[in-house]
Each structure stands twice: as structure tokens, then as C-alpha cells.
Amino acid sequence: METLNQILETEIFTLGTYTLKISQLASILIIIIVTKGILWIIKKAFFHKNIFSKIDAGSSYALLKFIKYVVWIIAIALVLESIGVKVTLLLAGSAALLVGIGLGLQQTFNDVISGIILLSERSIEVGDVLEIDGDVVIIESIGLRTSKAMNRDDISIIIPNSLITTSKVINWSHQSHQTRFKIHVGVAYGSDVDVVIKVLEESTFEHSEFHDRKLIEARLLGFGASSLDFQLLFFSANIFRIGKIKSDIRRRINKNFIENNIIIAFPQMDLHLKSNYSDKPQHK
């Protein structure tokens, strides 16, 4: 036992009056191992079938992430204490330095606070489909400072959390199981309106991704400068890949318009030229 105590009291590193002993290093390793063990147990408990069954996957992820950060903050504080650093004195003595760092890292702190809000408020969760600045993305993970998302081009995007909390964000996943979408088309004047409406609706019926046949509706919106303007309304549950669905329906509309001799309008302009030339008598 005495030999073990001597080994633990052996100095590894010395800097001025400060010394790092094997016992302190062992304490650090034990704290890290225990922290990882606690987080592993918590993670297994969260995703166990019989535990927290009433919490959805997004909420479980947010709560687990928040607990993870809290546990690691406590672990880091214990590590500092184990090597002889008084956390309370450190914070009090470095107040001025922390103010300077805070000013320099203001945006970073803003992102961190926004991350805490997202994880605790759970207004945005993993798997949600968002529209941010006109770009539609699906959230893959929510971190303390940034969130990872993927857009419709399968490109991974890193989004600062402050952008989500301060910008106008449309959360498509907060809608019902289906969302209404629109397709606009203009046809030439002289076309049979009833036939056009019928073709538009039947073109949507041919696609497998629409929801509820009764909710599909085509409307005559107005009389444009060069066309009769129509709007096709339909519901779909496939929100993230709606661009492809709209493209497929447009292809069917174009094909059915050709078969029914319906012409898609294009801008036209009649140009009238008026000559101001007049014959004047010539003087000899």
C-alpha cells in the first residue's frame, strides 16, 4: 500500500510551484471514463423500447443532447478541481478577460444560446423539413453551436443556430400529414376553359404521390396579357421531394395538352409601324 501511495504521489510535471502528480492524472482518467459510462447508460436508457416510450425520437434526441452538454460541463469542472485549479477563483479572477473574449466571440455565444433554446424548446427537431431563406432542407442533427442539414440536392449544409432562431423559418413538418402545393400554367385565349380544368385535374390523378382525389382542384385565376391563367392545387405527403413530383405532373400536363390541342401561351406583341413621310413638292 505504501508503494502504491509513493507511485501515486510521483511528480510527472513541474512548472514553478505547480506540480502534476500521477494521482491527479489517474483522477482525470477516472472522471473521463465515468462520464463516458454515464452518458452511455443514459443513451441506452433513452432509446430503450420500454423506457421513455411516450417521447418521440426528435424530443429524445434534443433532451439527450442537452444532458450530454451538462454532464461534460460538470466533468470538466471536476477535472480542473482535481488538478488543483479552483473553478470559482478562476472565474472571479478572469472576469475582465471573459468580458473581452465575450465581445470577440459574441456571434459564437449567440449561436450557442440559440442552440440551447432549440434543444430545450424543441420547436425544431431532427427530421424536420425547414424552408430557410428560400432553401428547403431536412435537419440531420442539432448541435450546441450549429445544426447540420441536407438540401434537395443532397448537399450537406452547416447552419448557425442563430440563423434558425432569428430568421423567418417555415417548418413544413409542423403541418398535417399532407401539404397543399400549387402549379401555375397559362393557355392561349380561345381554349375551352372546362376542358383545360379537366385535363389539369386528370394529369394529377395519373401521379401516385397525390393525397385525396377530392382535394385536387384546378382554377381559372384570371385573364393575363397573353394567356388564360390557371392554378392547379393538390395535396402531397412527400414534402422534401415535391420538386420532382411537380416536374412529373407538369410533364403529364404538357403531354395531355398536346393530345387535346391545348396551346400553352407565350408572350405575344403586335407591332404597328406608322410612317410620317409625306411627299413635298420639289422647287426647281
How does this structure look, described?
- The chain is α+β, with helices and mostly antiparallel strands and 284 residues long.
- It has 3 domains: 2-93, no CATH class; 123-174, SH3 type barrels; 179-259, 2-Layer Sandwich (Alpha-Beta Plaits).
- 45% of the residues lie in helices and 22% in strands.
- It is built from 9 helices and 11 strands.
- The protein has helices at residues 2-8, 22-46, 57-82, 87-93, 95-104, 106-121, 161-166, 193-205, 242-259; strands spanning 11-15, 18-21, 129-132, 135-142, 146-151, 156-160, 169-171, 179-187, 210-211, 217-223, 228-236.
- The strands form 3 sheets. The protein has a 5-stranded antiparallel β-sheet. Strands 8, 9, 10 and 11 form a 4-stranded antiparallel β-sheet that branches. Strands 1-2 form a two-stranded antiparallel sheet.
- A hairpin with a 3-residue loop joins strand 4 and strand 5.
- Helix 2 (22-46) runs antiparallel to helix 3, helix 3 packs across helix 6 (106-121) and helix 8 (193-205) packs across helix 9.
- It is elongated.
- 15% of the residues are buried.
- The mean pLDDT is 77.
- Belongs to the MscS (TC 1.A.23) family.
- It is a multi-pass membrane protein.
- It holds the Pfam family MS_channel_1st.
- Keywords: Cell membrane, Membrane, Transmembrane, Transmembrane helix.
- Residues 65-106 form the Mechanosensitive ion channel transmembrane helices 2/3 domain.
